[in-house]
Amino acid sequence: KAGVTQTPRYLIKTRGQQVTLSCSPISGHRSVSWYQQTPGQGLQFLFEYFSETQRNKGNFPGRFSGRQFSNSRSEMNVSTLELGDSALYLCASSLAGVGATEAFFGQGTRLTVV
Amino acid sequence: GENVEQHPSTLSVQEGDSAVIKCTYSDSASNYFPWYKQELGKRPQLIIDIRSNVGEKKDQRIAVTLNKTAKHFSLHITETQPEDSAVYFCAGGAGRRALTFGSGTRLQVQP
Fold first, then answer.
1. Backbone angles phi, psi at B83, to 5 degrees
2. Which of A35, A43, A99 sits opposite B95 (nearest CB)?
3. Backbone dihedral angles phi then psi of residue A94, each to the nearest 5 degrees
4. Do B20 and B105 form a contact (C-beta atoms < 8 A)?
5. Buried-exposed string B80-102: b where 16+ CB fall within 10 A, e elsewhere
6. What is the tens place of the pLDDT at every residue in A13-65?
7. What are B93's strand-pairing partners?
8. How is residue B52 annotated by DSSP?
9. How far is B80 from chain A (nearest CA, A)?
10. CA distance A92 to A30
11. What are phi and psi of A85, to 5 degrees?
């Protein structure tokens, strides 16, 4: 079965612009989480969506937002881009049954802000 | 919320030696502890996980131990090989809360 798919793989944007990243989870998975990965900072949790509702949120400014559609696909949006937003953005999907379960990661979108 | 601390941040071992990575967590409600391996340029992938009703789990050269009382868990890799070189992340989770990851350990296995 197909894995988690993220598009695009690479993006270059200018400061002040906005960007939208997409994540298609594994079929049947209803939970999608987003993480920011920067060198030395590990995996910083952005937010998690389940059944089109944001269920958890990390400590990121309001410029970072997301949504989930009825088919569980999720998008993440970053507005007014800053240089510090340059990072690898990973999404992960999981079954999200009762009790934490394995998260499956996509390949990530590498965002470069210039 | 949950806070997961991981150390060391870097670890260098000789091929054939053992490697140990340690994590602590803060939320006593956490009951699921996976370990992910991320090779250079690739996505993180699960290598082993443990639930709070188990104290130890092994899978060939990899083992994880959990001490619920002390709120810490460890990854043990025996007979390390160059292909074990990667960044390893621990994580803690519970119920419907998203996983909280440690800051990662870069393991370098010297041939």
1. -70, -5
2. A99
3. -150, 165
4. no
5. beeebbbbbbbbbbbebbbbbbb
6. 999 999 999 999 999 999 999 999 998 678 999 999 999 999 889 999 999 99
7. B32
8. T
9. 23
10. 11
11. -85, -10
Q: What is the pLDDT of residues B22-34, one digit of tens each?
A: 999 999 999 999 9
- Give ∠ CA A59-A38-A55 in degrees, rounded to 5: 35
Q: Which two tokens stand for residue B20?
A: 């140990």
Instruction: Please report, for residues A8, A64, A81, A91, the alpha-carbon distance to residue A20 in angstroms, rounded to integers and kept in the order given.
Output: 9, 10, 11, 13
Contacts of B58 by beta carbon, 8 Å cutoff, 6+ apart = none
Chain B residue set in contact with A, beta carbons under 8 Å:
6, 30-32, 34, 36, 42-46, 49, 89, 93-104
* Other beta carbons less than 10 A from residue A103's beta carbon: 28
